[in-house]
UniProtKB/TrEMBL annotation:
This is TRP C-terminal domain-containing protein. Pfam families: TRP. PANTHER family: DUF907 DOMAIN PROTEIN (AFU_ORTHOLOGUE AFUA_2G06100), INTEGRAL MEMBRANE PROTEIN (AFU_ORTHOLOGUE AFUA_7G01610). Keywords: Membrane, Transmembrane, Transmembrane helix. GO terms for cellular component: membrane. Residues 1-221 form the TRP C-terminal domain. The chain crosses the membrane at residues 6-23, 44-64, 70-92, 132-152, 158-177, 189-208. It comes from Verticillium longisporum. It comes from the Eukaryota. InterPro entries: TRP_C, TRP_Flc/Pkd2-like. GO terms for biological process: fungal-type cell wall biogenesis; transmembrane transport.
């Protein structure tokens, strides 16, 4: 229902823009938006998929393991496959473009310097240094792995904690090793956040019941 509502809304806005342009006084400020409407919508949807992918993986895997409705399971499977397919498609396109640029020009800086390439793909790597454009690929893998571990390990605290610790630690090592963000503040913030995540998972790991450690606090009612 939500997906259908979004599709209808997108089409409705396009229809309104076209009717406005044909029969009304269409403002020049919106002419560029109207001309590149589908490109803007595609970019926005892709950005949302990239932003929400980890949460969606968690929801879909949880639905597979705990859902009792075949319709909900089917919808979760289809949407997860579509979202994963979209991200995989863009990853392949960017990698292939970078490979061709490197063959033709000696490096992949064209991903940043060529306007047509930048407009199409920059949302995936615009925050990274030119040599680390590829970092969005392990980030996508990280989101998938984390969501899968949390959802599939529901009810198994030790598995969840150990799995998360491995995933978070690997990402922290990658960030410390490469420091991939263009801005120094970006590296500092991302590394700090990742350190906090690792520490949080370690704390969870210490206090899961499987270790036989009693709770340190108790709520009295």
């Amino acid at each position: 229902i939500v997906i259908a509502a979004i599709v209808v809304s997108i089409l409705l806005v396009k229809v309104i823009l076209e009717f406005w342009a044909l029969f009304g006084s269409f403002p020049k400020a919106l002419s560029g938006f109207r001309e590149h409407y589908w490109g803007s919508i595609a970019r926005t949807i892709t950005s949302l998929i990239l932003l929400l992918y980890g949460i969606w993986v968690l929801y879909c895997i949880f639905q597979f393991t705990h859902g009792d409705s075949w319709a909900a399971n089917t919808l979760a499977g289809v949407t997860l496959a579509v979202f994963t397919g979209i991200l995989a498609f863009f990853a392949w396109k960017i990698w292939n473009t970078a490979r061709k640029l490197k063959q033709a020009e000696g490096d992949s800086s064209g991903l940043y310097e060529k306007k047509e390439v930048w407009v199409k793909y920059s949302l995936f790597y615009e925050s990274y240094k030119k040599d680390y454009w590829w970092l969005f690929i392990p980030i996508i893998i990280y989101m998938f792995a984390k969501g899968t571990i949390i959802a599939a390990g529901d009810g198994h605290g030790l598995f969840q904690a150990l799995g998360q610790l491995i995933v978070e630690a690997l990402l922290l090592i990658l960030l410390l090793w490469k420091r991939p963000y263009e801005r120094k503040s970006g590296n500092v913030i991302s590394i700090t956040i990742q350190v906090v995540r690792v520490i949080s998972v370690v704390c969870i790991l210490v206090f899961v019941e499987q270790f036989g450690i009693a709770q340190t606090t108790q709520t009295v009612t």
